[in-house]
Amino acid sequence: MLPFSPEQFLSVFVNYNTAIWPVQVVAYLLGGLAISLLFWKVSHADRVIAGVLAAMWLWTGFAYHGIFFSPINTAAYLFGTLFILQGACLMYSGTYQNRLCFGLEFATPAWIGVALVIYAAIIYPLIGMASGHQYPETPMFGVTPCPVTIFTFGLLLLTVRPVPRWLLVVPFVWSLIGGSAAILLNVPQDWLLLVSGCIAVPVIIFRDRRAMSDVRAA
Question: Is Transmembrane helix one of the keywords (predicted)?
Answer without folding.
Answer: yes
